[in-house]
Design a protein that fits this description.
The complex is a heterodimer of chains A (301) and B (188). With 301 residues, chain A is an all-alpha fold. Chain A has helices at residues 6-31, 37-59, 79-110, 119-153, 166-187, 193-220, 225-236, 238-260, 266-290. The model of chain B has no long low-confidence stretch (mean pLDDT 92). Chain A binds chain B through residues 61-65, 67-68, 70-74, 77-81, 84, 153, 156-159, 292, 294-301, and chain B through 38-43, 55, 57, 66, 68-74, 90-96, 99-104, 108, 112-114, 161-166, 169.
Chain lengths: 301, 188
């Protein structure tokens, strides 16, 4: 069985929230109405802080963090090298987004000032909007590639519980679920009703998919002795049942209630469901590492 | 790669003295925790008749080494003679190779915070000497051999033993001569 890999749990979950926020900002900007400038600025800032914390946490997993730069050396076959490359590129794209978010505020505050807005200023505003949409898109795609690479690290023939599409789907669903919920919390009153509804529906979809995927994943684990050991560990662990309760059942019920009853006080409920979902995903990630059973020598020694 | 060097272990000759383990530790002054080479006892009930046999295993210098594939810093290289070398100067202690190897042979050294493993005494081989473990094996159970088709065609040479991971995962460069089964005599 595996260990409590706190640096890896923090790195993966925080990194996935960070990229999830950018992905949701991009989604709202493209699919629904114009994104509020303040939300864009807040979202980009929080995402960057979380991404920086995630990268920092990942260093604590290494025996020699001072030599972490070398991890880019084996891009030809190592998914860990590719993960680091994509995360660094995501961070560079984020710096561009951050610069844009600062620049955007200046134009918007100058625009409705005493002097009337000129045609040139309107054109500049449109250009900026197109630029930040492009920035969000590039950051999201690079981030998603980073997350897929993170997941591929664990697709090892030695570990039957990981040697499948499960890790990639789990990591992407965490990104979608927590990204949408944290954006909802950050957005608050800055989000329009239709934007809130889309994010709530997205969160509900991710929760249902995550639950269904886990049922399918669990049923597939019985194919080998090591997979069965992983499944038995999960089913006998109180942590798994706490994860099921706070990470799947409670968010599911709360999200359905929020969507069905618009008169409910959404702010508190959204914060509650976000905290529960974060706790559920952290426990889920801990169990991901703890339940890993590798094929090994079973002779006596 | 022009050839593939590896080990041939004869479980019939091995007495489980762990001299190979000690020779390895002595040669490289390895600290207590990492065990580059380890002697395992085969399960008595894995054979048709109860038997007490051993096998000795270090890095298997696999034809498809998972450690080499997953390492992000290129600390692993495979020589022309098939030996998989780990360079501790490049290692950053991410431990991914320890997760990927089904034989648990790359070992994390908590004192150095780096991974270590058997490099098949390549410096001794280059000088025409035997690896320390092979040289120290009193009953001659451990041999350095070239892994090829003619070896695999010999009678009694096995690619795996009960209790070992499937060789399909990494194609390890180790062959075994399994224990001979005892004779059971019925007295009426």
């Amino acid at each position: 069985m595996g260990d409590w890999e706190w640096p890896l749990i923090l790195f993966t979950v925080l990194g996935q929230i960070a990229i999830g926020i950018i992905l949701m900002l991009w989604y709202l900007d493209r699919e629904v109405d114009q994104l509020d400038a303040k939300l864009f600025k807040q979202g980009v800032l929080v995402s960057g802080v979380l991404l920086a914390l995630a990268l920092l946490a990942s260093l604590f997993h290494l025996g020699h963090p001072e030599a972490a730069y070398r991890s880019l050396a084996h891009l030809s076959s190592s998914w860990l090298s590719r993960e680091i490359l994509f995360f660094l590129l995501t961070f560079l794209a984020w710096i561009y987004l951050f610069w844009q978010s600062r620049h955007l505020t200046i134009i918007r505050t100058l625009g409705p000032g005493a002097t009337p807005i000129t045609t040139a200023e309107i054109a500049a505003g449109k250009q900026q909007s197109a630029n930040h949409s492009l920035g969000l898109g590039i950051t999201s795609i690079l981030g998603l590639l980073g997350i897929a690479s993170s997941a591929m690290i664990y697709v090892l023939p030695r570990v039957p519980a990981w040697n499948n599409v499960g890790p990639v789907l789990f990591f992407l669903l965490t990104t979608g679920l927590l990204g949408a919920l944290v954006t909802l919390v950050l957005g608050g009153k800055l989000l329009q009703t239709v934007q809130k509804k889309r994010l709530l529906q997205w969160s509900l979809g991710c929760t249902i998919l995550s639950l269904l995927l886990y049922v399918v994943y669990g049923s597939m684990l019985n194919g080998s002795a090591e997979g069965t050991a992983s499944l038995n560990f999960l089913l006998n662990s109180p942590l798994f049942w706490i994860r099921a309760l706070v990470g799947w059942l409670a968010p599911l019920l709360l999200l359905v209630s929020i969507l069905k009853k618009p008169q409910l006080d959404k702010t508190t409920l959204i914060l509650t469901v976000t905290l529960l979902a974060v706790l559920g995903e952290v426990l889920g990630r801990a169990l991901f590492y703890l339940s890993a059973t590798g094929i090994h020598i079973t002779a006596l020694f | 790669m022009t050839k593939q060097l590896g080990f041939l272990h004869n479980s019939e000759k091995c007495v489980g003295c762990r001299g190979c383990e000690m020779a390895c530790k002595n040669e490289y002054q390895i600290e207590a925790t990492p065990q580059w080479r380890k002697v395992f006892q085969l399960r008595e009930d894995d054979f048709s008749l109860p038997t007490r046999m051993f096998f000795s295993m270090a890095c298997n210098h696999c034809a498809n080494p998972e450690c080499l594939r997953v390492c992000p810093v290129e600390a692993y290289t495979k020589r022309d003679d098939g030996i998989v070398i780990h360079d501790p100067n490049r290692c950053i202690g991410c431990r991914l190779c320890t997760m990927a190897c089904p034989y648990d042979r790359p070992q994390f050294n908590p004192a150095k915070k780096k991974v270590e493993k058997c490099n098949l005494c390549y410096q001794r081989i280059d000088n025409g000497e035997k690896p320390a473990c092979v040289a120290a094996c009193i009953p001659g159970a451990l041999e350095l051999v070239e892994i090829n088709a003619s070896l695999d065609q010999k009678t009694g040479v096995l690619k795996t033993l009960p209790g070992l991971p499937s060789p399909k995962i990494t194609t390890p460069s180790i062959r075994f001569i399994g224990p001979l089964q005892g004779q059971q005599i019925r007295r009426d």
